[in-house]
Amino acid sequence: MRSSEVAAAAGVNLQTLRYYERRGLIDEPDRTLGGHRLYPAEAVTTLRVIKAAQRLGFTLAEISELLDTARHRHARGGGAGLQTRAREKLADVEAKLADLTVIAETLRAGIAAGCQDLETCTGNPDCPLPFSEIAQ
Amino acid sequence: MRSSEVAAAAGVNLQTLRYYERRGLIDEPDRTLGGHRLYPAEAVTTLRVIKAAQRLGFTLAEISELLDTARHRHARGGGAGLQTRAREKLADVEAKLADLTVIAETLRAGIAAGCQDLETCTGNPDCPLPFSEIAQ
DNA sequence: GGTAAACCTGTACCGACGTACCGGATGCAA
DNA sequence: TTGCATCCGGTACGTCGGTACAGGTTTACC
């Protein structure tokens, strides 16, 4: 498959394909005599896996590592496997959930109290937004 | 107060202070004859309000706008007030919460299923991670 | 063999939020 | 008046995940 076919099939930009190649996320494909890239069909699957992993919150660096340890399985000791990574990521996500829950509650309180502007709220000790408590 | 005092009192970097000034988040302070900035004590409060608003998920651009509409209150029509902004932000935060909840559930499913690496999971139709369904 | 579409490399840029470094000027105390 | 900490403006860098452009080749089809 040619690069634009792969990009279209995976729903990514052509530039993104080359970017991933530079980042080591996808293998360097074979080339035509003239230097044009020729991808195997599996490249599309790899790209979809990358996108799925991104949706789960993994960074490209993490995905790159996960793909590496998947390829050569002798990752004893050094590289953490998918299990470990998923556990760590879950902890991150749960922490973010906790943060956002507090934030949502605070915003709801501010809305319920009818806060009109930052200046008034900052000086008002009854305001539920954390401006007044912070002011002094 | 001198710039380093304000920065220390608000817990921000000196450079950040100048950055906020460039962004229009804090007023341009008076200067000494030699050009050194001299801040009023309220600058510290403003900085803390900015940090509190950031913790609530507002961008610096949004905070800048909120501070502006707070300062000159004649913001009828054009600029949305704190109420409106808070409602919009709450909707954002709730959307993020929903996303992260799905992500957390997916990660938990993957952990419970004992997924070991991306390659195996991609080819396994029983894997709860959304790689296999996506592969074809 | 001509032509247009696709492709190549390399580099620069986006946005969001700062941080760091430079050479030079200033402030303050002894 | 000297000396040193602090501050000045301007610019460059860093992250993260791409995207865009320039200007030059290659491929594919008629």
Could you describe the 3D structure shown?
2 copies of one chain form a homodimer. With 136 residues, chain A is an all-alpha fold. Chain A has 2 domains: 3-79, Multidrug-efflux Transporter Regulator, Chain: A, Domain 2 (Orthogonal Bundle); 84-135, no CATH class. The first copy, chain A, is 62% helix and 3% strand. Chain A has 7 helices and 2 strands. In chain A, strands 1-2 form a two-stranded antiparallel ribbon. In chain A, strand 1 and strand 2 form a beta hairpin. The N and C termini of chain A lie far apart (64 Å). The model of chain A has no long low-confidence stretch (mean pLDDT 89). At the A-B interface, helix 3, helix 4, helix 5 and helix 6 of A face helix 3, helix 4, helix 5 and helix 6 of B. The structure holds a DNA duplex (30 and 30 nucleotides). Chains A, B: Residues 1-69 form the HTH merR-type domain. Chains A, B: It holds the Pfam family MerR_1. Chains A, B: One of its GO terms (molecular function) is DNA-binding transcription factor activity.
Provide a short characterization of the protein structure.
Chain A is mainly alpha-helical and about 140 residues long.
Strand content of chain A: under 5%
Number of helices of chain A: 7
If interface size is counted as residues with C-beta under 8 Å from the partner's C-beta, which chains form the largest one? A-B, 50 and 49 residues
Tally of domains of chain A: 2
Termini of chain A, distance in Å?
Answer: 64 Å
Helix-strand string of chain A: HHEEHHHHH
Residue share in helices of chain A? 55-70%
Poorly predicted ranges of chain A: none
